[in-house]
Specification:
Blueprint (H helix, E strand, L loop, with lengths): L16 H11 L15 E6 L2 E7 L5 H5 L4 E2 L5 E2 L5 E9 L8 E8 L2 E6 L2 E6 L7 E5 L9 E9 L21 E11 L1 H20 L4 H16 L8 H12 L9 E7 L10 H21 L5 E4 L1 H10 L1 H12 L3 E4 L13 H19 L5 E3 L10 H7 L4 E3 L15 E5 L5 E5 L12 H10 L8 E6 L10 H9 L8 E4 L2 H10 L6 E3 L15 H27 L7 H14 L11 H27 L10 E6 L5 E8 L5 E8 L3 E4 L9 E5 L5 E4 L3 E5 L5 E6 L4 E2 L9 E6 L19 E2 L2 E13 L1 E9 L5 E9 L5 E9 L4 E8 L6 E6 L2 E6 L5 H4 L4 E2 L3 E6 L2 E7 L4 E5 L2 E8 L11 E13 L2 H4 L1 H9 L3 E5 L6 E2 L1 E3 L4 E8 L6 E8 L5 E7 L3 E7 L5 E6 L1 E2 L3 E6 L4 E8 L1
Helix pairs in contact: 1-4, 3-4, 3-5, 3-12, 4-5, 6-7, 6-8, 7-8, 9-15, 14-15, 14-16, 15-16
The structure holds zinc ion.
């Protein structure tokens, strides 16, 4: 490389774009010509460590525990492991005196993810994958600086993305070995570093602006001249080249140019390809690195979501947490999102979603004195149509995500728009057009941000989130250096370090031309996540029901017995476990086996602690002194129920009883005879006829339904010549994302399950209950055993199902071909329901070949319909007249054993006259999911009801103690039919006053509720959620 005089800049060269561009690229190449190029000069002198010793731990232990261990000498290149171990290194180093005035780094290249500890404090994360391989010992070494330093390096034996065997999402390799490839002291030549950054950006501008733009040629000739001017061996030559770059970068834009709001970010999955416990360390490593960058750059802004992760760092890294609090105060470290975790956007119940915000916002308020103003969910597999209302109820009117850019079929038409929810609530929504939440501050990303923006002309501002995710430690100094150089450079968008508040304020100020998208944001990908890891789904649904019942029962116990202690702390702990498992790679089932084990363990905690709390609350319903010798039932739902329950005596003998229990109340179990008993008849052809006065069904020997008849009006629900309750198997091989994806082509591989192992046999012969059982062979490894149950007075037939499942890449579903024709089917979602088409007309229709729903889905004509209910499933498809419930999948990555074993679940079929609203489908689905609680009480206890609602359209969903006041109850109701109604919430509780409040339980003092001695009058619009604070007398 020859130094050339400046005068030669005006010497023409060939206008060969390729030659000049490659010349500049080679000048900074890490591979070619490093003997003479600029890159080869990045590091100056180096010096070995004084000593490197190590200690291997199979557990994740504290610094104090690690530091007291015996460390033994460690050779560079020596391997250690296996996966999930932690290797602690003690690094003793001495910086040469002669390096005075130099920038000194510890260069550390290793596998795994590491944290540097100094003076017993975490000081910086190190990871090759996150481009963090050096720890800065001194920016400019002075004589008085410590020259002898001891550091500890805590190295986790897993990569950024776990330890997938062969591919990222493959099950982890438990035997992987790790090593340190380089550990030494080096002098970093800061002037070379800066010069390299200039070159890199110039080269990128040439590439990105392409041949069509003259600005790209200006960059080309400028960078070529920079090579002419810059002699790598002669640092004095850099100034001229740098000033050429500088003058290029400062040729400014016109006023109309797009503005990119850059925000540092580190998307950390709370568990995914690594267990929860590792996430705590990923947070520590990433956030401490962010603090180091903030110390140097007061303009650097970092956005950080998930209250749970803050809570983890608070308890595991208290020193770091104190520093974070300081930078939150300064406005640089910005908590965003307002939720406990970045949860799945489809599967959590309405109340769970409220609690995500309640726990999150209250945490941020307690810790930092602020509520988040934006919901932040970049990486979730679809977004419920109720989220806008829930956000608004939690003080949030802005939303950021980008996941819909992953749609397989249709391109979402907006990047900035108003998203309108089920009830009409709107939130200002932004999808960063760069389609990433892990940018690197590169020219390409900025160009794409402008190019991809689908609201050109409407919007002139966008977000760019930069930083490595998942423990890569977030942003780097290099990213900040890049962004600094091109804040206002002609040909590129303007870039400024910004905050979510600044971005959204700007978007709102210019919102006049924004479009509105109404209804759900459905992700046309990852549709297998409604079904994968069935035990997690079941744990979620059951624990949601259990926590609901505990809260209702505890609220009533508080009213019945002043001495009762509402278990607030215990409930918060259990709720937080449930909310944690709703993280967007846990409840969808897209996590490794270790995470599944943790998640199922948390559900077990909730079940065992929760059932104790529920029992305890019910005990306070009666007087404590008297002998409790009678069985009673507690009904947590806001309507009267007549149901058959199964009792168990002290000897373990079971019996059935028909109970009538008032809304939100209790009753003693009495022997009641049904007005119409169930009859079960084995017919001459071997089929079984069951009827209960409401339904009549004929069951074939293989368990399928030959007929299902609504006796009122004698309406047959099963399609002519078809069978209901038909199990079907599909080949289920997606393109890549195994646990996540089911592709449309799986539908072409449908095979009915027909082989009978044990034909239908009568189990319960009628009276209170009729039931039959049978077993089918799915394959030589898998079977399904089912009990079909018809109870007295019950409007639906239950299918209690047990599956032995040992398949590979298969999908089990059950079909009900029904005698129904309608262009739309209805699916329950959070606090409401929505319709989706039953046809595949357009690409938007057929991309929804597999959809999610909660407790029920319905297909109705005018005046007649069929509903398919479930107690722990979420995947549905209703195409033409076939209603299908998705039951089990068998993906092999990232959990090689996903869903293998025994599964229990129940679904139910409910033909009905009139609309599903009028027929009580919603109530039936609740009944199926919230079985009455049996408990012992005194024999003379009279039945009582604490709450009821006049209009069946309104569901009283939640009754709990208010978060901030012991004498106050919080109740939450929603309109479930899609109608405008005025109704009364009746209660026997003596009320002092009642206030409307938001979902964070903040009372609206301008709105006292309309109260009389009987209760509170309430007005609802369709699917509206209302919360009230009821203050006891
Ligand atoms: Zn994620």
């Amino acid at each position: 490389m020859h130094h050339q005089p400046v005068s030669q800049y005006h010497q023409p060269v060939l206008k060969s774009r390729r030659c000049l561009l490659e010349r500049a690229e080679k000048f900074i190449s890490e591979i070619y010509f490093t003997d003479c190029n600029l890159r080869g000069r990045l590091y100056g002198d180096s010096c070995p460590l004084e000593s490197l010793t190590s200690f291997l731990s199979s557990k994740r232990i504290s610094f104090a525990e690690a530091a007291s261990q015996q460390f033994t000498p460690h050779k560079i290149g020596e391997t250690f492991g296996p996966t999930w171990c932690t290797c602690w290194f003690k690094v003793m180093l001495r910086i040469p005196k002669s390096w005075r005035g130099k920038e000194v780094h510890l260069l550390w290249e290793s596998d795994g993810e590491a944290m540097v500890w100094r003076d017993e404090q975490p000081v910086q994360g190190l990871t090759k994958e996150g481009e963090k391989t050096s720890y800065v010992l001194s920016d400019c070494l002075r004589d008085e600086d410590p020259h002898s330093v001891t550091l500890y390096v805590e190295l986790a034996c897993n990569g950024l993305f776990g330890a997938g065997q062969g591919s990222m999402i493959a099950a982890p390799d438990p035997n992987r070995k790790y090593s340190v490839q380089k550990a030494e002291l080096v002098v970093l030549n800061r002037d070379v570093r800066e010069m390299l950054t200039d070159f890199e950006i110039m080269v990128d501008i040439v590439k990105q602006l392409g041949e069509g733009e003259q600005r790209g040629y200006q960059a080309l000739f400028a960078v070529n001249e920079m090579v002419n001017l810059c002699d790598p061996a002669e640092p004095n030559s850099f100034a001229k080249a740098r000033s050429l770059a500088q003058s290029f970068f400062t040729q400014r834009n016109g006023h109309s140019q797009h503005t990119v709001h850059a925000m540092g970010h580190c998307h950390i999955d709370s568990a995914w390809l690594w267990p929860y416990e590792e996430t705590i360390r990923k947070c520590g490593r990433s956030w401490v690195t962010v603090i180091r960058l903030m110390e140097k750059d007061p303009e650097f802004v970092f956005t950080c979501s998930q209250a749970q992760q803050f809570q983890w760092v608070k308890s595991w890294y208290p020193g770091l947490y104190t520093q974070i609090q300081q930078y939150v105060k300064k406005g640089q470290f910005i908590p965003v999102g307002g939720t406990w975790v970045e949860m799945d956007g489809n599967l959590p119940s309405g109340e769970s979603m409220v609690r995500q915000f309640l726990e999150g916002q209250r945490f941020f308020h307690q810790e930092f004195g602020m509520y988040c103003k934006e919901f932040w969910l970049p990486d979730t597999f679809g977004y419920s149509a109720q989220l806008p209302q829930i956000m608004q109820g939690c003080g949030i009117s802005r939303f950021l995500t980008q996941k819909l850019s992953w749609n397989l079929v249709n391109t979402f038409p907006h990047n900035t728009f108003f998203w309108e929810g089920l009830d009409g609530s709107q939130v200002l929504t932004h999808f960063p057009p760069g389609n990433s939440y892990e940018m690197k501050g590169k020219v390409e990303e900025l160009v794409n941000t402008v190019k991809n923006n689908k609201d050109k002309g409407r919007v002139n501002h966008s977000a760019a989130l930069f930083g490595f995710g998942d423990g890569g430690g977030g942003p780097t100094q290099l990213m900040l250096d890049r962004l600094k150089r091109i804040q206002d450079t002609d040909g590129l968008p303007k870039v400024r370090m910004s905050t979510p508040d600044q971005l959204f304020s700007q978007l709102l100020a210019d919102s006049a031309l924004l479009c509105t998208w109404s209804g759900e944001l459905f992700l046309e990908l990852h549709n297998g996540t409604y079904t994968t890891q069935a035990q997690i789904k079941r744990g979620n649904r059951q624990c949601e029901s259990l926590l609901h019942d505990i809260e209702v029962a505890s609220s009533l116990a508080l009213w019945r017995d002043k001495a009762f202690q509402y278990p607030q702390e215990q409930l918060q702990r259990l709720w937080r476990l449930l909310l944690l498992n709703q993280f967007h790679d846990v409840i969808p089932g897209s996590c490794i086996e270790m995470v599944v084990e943790d998640a199922l363990g948390y559900y077990q905690d909730i079940r065992s602690d929760g059932s104790g709390l529920l029992r305890d609350a019910c005990r306070h319903f009666g007087s404590n002194e008297q002998k409790c010798d009678s069985s009673a039932v507690f009904n947590s739902l806001p309507w009267e129920r007549n149901e058959v329950v199964q009792l168990q005596d002290a000897a373990g003998q079971t019996s059935l009883a028909l109970v009538k229990v008032p809304s939100v109340g209790m009753a003693i179990v009495k022997d009641t005879e049904p007005t119409i008993p169930v009859s079960v008849t084995v017919q001459a052809d071997g089929t079984v006829l069951m009827e209960n006065g409401i339904l009549k069904t004929v069951i074939n020997k293989d368990g399928s339904l030959a007929s299902l008849c609504l006796m009122e009006g004698n309406r047959e629900a099963i399609s002519d010549g078809c069978h209901g309750n038909q199990f079907v198997m599909f080949d289920d091989v997606p393109l890549y994302w195994d646990a996540w994806d089911v592709m449309d082509y799986h539908l072409q591989t449908r095979k009915p399950v027909l082989e009978v192992v044990a034909p239908v046999q009568v189990v319960a012969s009628g009276g209170l209950r009729g039931s039959i059982a049978f077993t089918l062979r799915i394959s030589d490894k898998s079977t399904v055993t089912q009990e079909i149950v018809l109870d007295a007075m019950c409007p639906y037939i239950k299918f209690n199902t047990q599956v032995q499942w040992a398949e590979s890449h298969k999908f089990l579903k059950v079909e009900f071909p029904v005698r129904m024709r309608s262009p739309n089917a209805t699916y329950e979602i959070q606090f409401g329901h929505l319709q989706r088409p039953t046809h595949w007309n357009t690409s938007w229709d057929w991309a929804r070949f597999e959809v999610w729903g909660h407790k029920w889905a319905d297909l109705s004509e005018h005046n007649f319909g069929v509903s398919l209910l479930n107690d722990c499933k979420y995947g549905y498809s209703i195409h033409k007249n076939i209603m299908t419930l998705s039951l089990l999948r068998a993906p092999k990555a990232p959990d090689a054993n996903a869903d293998m074993g025994t599964h229990l679940f129940t679904y139910a079929i409910m033909p009905h006259a009139g609309s599903f609203q009028a027929a009580g489908v919603i109530q039936s689905a609740y009944n199926l999911n919230f079985p009455p609680t049996l408990f012992q009480t005194t024999a003379d206890a009279a039945p009582w009801s604490a709450f009821s609602v006049d209009d069946t359209a309104v569901v009283l969903e939640t009754i709990k103690q208010a978060e901030d006041s012991r004498g106050t109850l919080l109740v939450r109701l929603y309109e479930s039919h899609g109608s405008s109604v005025t109704t009364m919430l009746r209660t026997v509780l003596p009320l002092q006053e009642a206030w409307h409040c938001d979902l964070l339980e903040r009372p609206d003092h301008t709105q006292p509720a309309q109260m009389t001695s009987e209760g509170v009058t309430l007005k609802f619009s369709p699917h509206q959620i209302r919360s009230l604070l009821l203050v006891r007398k």
